[in-house]
Amino acid sequence: MKKQVFLFLIFILQFGFAQSNLNWKGYFSYNQIKDITEATDRIIGAGENALFSKNILSNTIKTTNTIDGLSGQTITAIHHSNTFKKTIIGYENGLLIVVNDIDGSVTNVVDIINKSIPPNIKRINHFMEHEGIIYISCDFGIVQYNIDTLNFGDTYFIGPNGTEIKIYQTAVLNNEIYAVTVFNGIKRAALTNPNLNDFNQWQTFDAGFWNGLVTYNNQLVGSNLNNRVYKYNGSFFEEIVNLNQVNIEIRTYNDKLMITTLNDVYVYNTSFNQLAHIQSSQITDQTITFTCATVINNTIYIGTNENGILTSTIESPASFEYIMPDGPSKNRMFSISSSSTNLWAVYGGYNIEFNPYLYIGFSLSQFGVSKFSESDGWLNIPYSEMLDAKALTRATINPNNENETYISSYNNGLIKIENDIPTTLYQSANSSLESIVSGSLENIRIGPSAFDRSNNLWITNSRINNGLKVLRANGQWQSYNMESILAAVGANDYSRIVIDRNGTKWIGSSQNGLIAFNENNNVFKKITEGVDEGNLPAKDVRALAIDNRNQVWIGTSKGLRVLSSISSYNNEGQINTNRIVIQDGDIGQELLFEQFVTDIEVDGSNRKWIGTADSGVFLFSPNGQETIYHFTTDNSPLPSNSVNEIAINPTTGEVFFATDRGMISFQGTSTKPADDLKNVYVYPNPVRPEFVGTVKIAGLISKATIKITDIEGNLVHETTSEGGTIEWDTTAFGKYKVASGVYMIFISAEDGSETTVKKVMIVR
To answer: Which SUPFAM superfamilies match (predicted)?
Structure first.
């Protein structure tokens, strides 16, 4: 295993949402290149839902993602206009985004999304610029867009009888526009015709089956579905090359013609002499496939599905380098786990019904895992090094040794990773883990695991009688039979496990609600739906958290419940949970009623971060009565409202959101409380006029009193800390912004045993 080596000098990551908000960071994958485009001074690559560019002269890399205003949807085409200094981005759902090079502004254009046509045919396939007009090829037809004024022109529906038809690509030659359609060959019309929105004005130029067309050296060059590329000589199409594969992309730039298939890139000059032929088999360090290609100043840039942009030169086409910003290997993260220094991302998984064969496609996922640290960036461990374990679901970091991590597989058991190297795969032959089918075929569905205070690892093993296992610190295994508490054992899956300070294991299940177990009395208890059975809104428990007040927060597929105390486990009789009722005027409403809760995390201030399947992320006050934040794709850089997992760095307070379209983080203010007030600090300091955000006071102890006064002693803010950090919005009790000056911060422990004083300067 080796860490990715990046061949650029400087990596620039743009932060800030809505121009200057520094609370957000993006952690996107740039491996899979959807399209590339050429600018005067740089090459721009489009990943799944984010862009990056490399300056050809300085070698600097710049990224653009949802933090900067892009959408989390899937990109399908990009084009840079050197004339108007703008980059236009097209999406699978019909969205257009225009990025202005001059002022950095990002404009969302939703006209195609809002068109009254079926949503599944709004995909944007290609951009062609001609005299300031972008001709947009879509799955329904062609749309005119003025790149200078950012206004739409006509829409051409040129299918039979004016119906919608997929357009692959357009080209202009001798003041005529040509369009490659999916079923009706190449259509042609005169650009001077004022009535091009009449389908009758479009004539069939060639009735063959084509999928690409460009104008090159004053000729039409097209790719046919017979795997050949032709040039039109004025009378008929003359073959240039037999690709032996279906063409993926054909393009021209300056004086070069580029043709791309899955495994080959061909480069031609204006005389149609082949200048280069790059084959994927020439890349021996890994298996890659191609998506697109271009040439700038004799350097070939090839988009790949696996490793960013591959570069070579026409003179030395056997020497390759990669261009790709540091990032995770995939955007679609099934789960994440964070410690104070590391974050692990896992990409395998199962579908909503816990079926690992239907998570992606119809077979078990074969993905690796990734590890991130601020000091070292991303380390991507490929599937080839994961000991043949498929459908990986969760990472559990040893709290006493961060160099030891366990990865759960929903088919092959449990992997132990030591010092970033997978060393052991625990299966039935070398552990007490059990398969759900007999015989030689292993089907060991290991769900989440958790360490207790004695460094024992508790493991859930789905769909078997002995569903709870423990790998003790001394290396011994033990199993616990759950037949007495479970219904439909053979269909029961486990979603979460958390362990409280008393050693009680709280286990979320798909069919049996919440299960509690403590080995000291060897008793299993169950909380399920129904008023007399525990009062859960559903038996399908997906999220669990124990907060700082020893309450158990339970997220299900149909809402939220709270168990008032972990000590309820010791009570006789049925354990019951409570719903949270919030007041909306005179009406009481249940918090997160019928919401599919995917994760619950508790920060240093005992606030609850809750992820949902389709409604984004919520931050609630400790008791759930106040909604502090509700982040969605509409009001934040969240790339998707489908949030799979949340993780919090307990030291920095950074909150990570893993979605099905990428991961971002929010710089939270709630960190673990310190033991004393010796290391209290204030940031930013000074607060300059251009700063947008809040002042943070960090390094606090729990329940510290903070009073902020102006230099004359007038109180402007007062609060009490619950975690290690508080924030001040630089207003006087929320009424108005305080004036420029030095402000004193007086901090004292709850019992007055410790005090400290800090200063902050504010410049308006």
So the answer is: NHL repeat (SSF101898)
